[in-house]
Structure formats: C-alpha cells, structure tokens
C-alpha cells in the first residue's frame, strides 16, 4: 500500500511538471477571439513598464503598461502551441511617445473610419506604432483590424474599412520612438 501511495504521488508530481502547471509569464495576459476565418490573440501588458512581444513573424514593440496589442492569424494557420511560443521582454530600445493628438472621422454609411495622428511637438523624431480597431455590431465583436505605421513627418492618416456591418468601435493607439 505504501509503494502504491509513493507511485501515485510521484505520478502526480510528474503530471504537474509536464503539463505546464507552472508559474505563467507575469508580463502579459492574453485572450483569444475567433471571428470568421481569423484567430485573434489580444495581449495586455500587466507589467509596470513597456514590453516587446513577438510570435512567429509578428511583433508588438513597446506595448505600454496596461495597454493591449493583438496578433492576428488565419484560422487554418493557427496552432495551439502558439500560446507557449509568445516571447515577452522589457522594451529597452523604444519608449512610449505621447506628444500626439487624434482626429477621427467615422462614416457609418460607408462603414469607414479615418484616423489622423498628429504630433503636438515640432520634433524630428521618427515614430512607430499600431492602431487597432475593434468593430462592434449590437455590442458584439464582428471584426478587428490592425495597422502598423511609421510617422516620419507631422501627421499620418489611416483608413479602416470593414466588410462587416458595425455600429460602434473601440480604438487603441500604441505609438513609440527610439530612445
């Protein structure tokens, strides 16, 4: 009986070690959404500093504390192993850039959203970033689009058009510059 109890305890310890029941990376949390033929990983920075995230050929640079970023995959290409392949580290090359204003024009009849990002300082910094638009219809998420951009001058205009009918949006801007 004693040998059986030792074997059971050993087996349970091995299962715990090999099934991933270990401390998770505390830099981010993620949520998975499936929309039509897409799988979207929504990642939230839970650290107090900006982080860089990467998965396969996609990167999120300088994600500020408490902000979200996304990785978007075709449903056929997505693998469950991707969850374990996300790499996260503190951002050391970039810093958040906050000297900008946003002007938006939303046209529901055309199902189009235009966003103009304007620097508020007259500096020569080249800024990088991403704009993520979550499209909702009757409070249900129907589409997500992401646009990575480079802001070399004073302003940048980005247009989003969804083939889905939508009546509301949530928009996230993550803008950063080299240190």
Short synopsis of the structure:
With 179 residues, the chain is mainly beta. 12% of the residues lie in helices and 55% in strands.
Mean pLDDT: 88
- Overall, the morphology is globular
Beta-strand residue fraction? over 45%
Query: How does the major sheet shape up?
Result: 4 strands, antiparallel
Number of strands: 13
User: Fraction of residues in helices?
Assistant: 10-25%
Order of helices and strands: HEEEEEHEEEEEEEE
Structural class: mainly beta
Spatial order of the strands in the main sheet? 7-13-10-11
Distance linking N and C termini = 64 Å
Low-pLDDT windows of residues: 17-24
Plain-language structure description:
The structure is a single chain. This protein is mainly beta and 179 residues long. The chain has helices at residues 2-18, 82-85, and strands at 28-35, 38-45, 51-55, 58-63, 68-74, 87-90, 94-96, 100-107, 112-119, 127-137, 140-151, 155-161, 168-178. The chain has a four-stranded antiparallel beta sheet with strand order 7-13-10-11, with no helix packed on it. It has a three-stranded antiparallel beta sheet with strand order 1-2-5, with no helix packed on it. A three-stranded antiparallel beta sheet has the order 4-3-6. It is globular. The chain starts with a helix and ends with a strand.
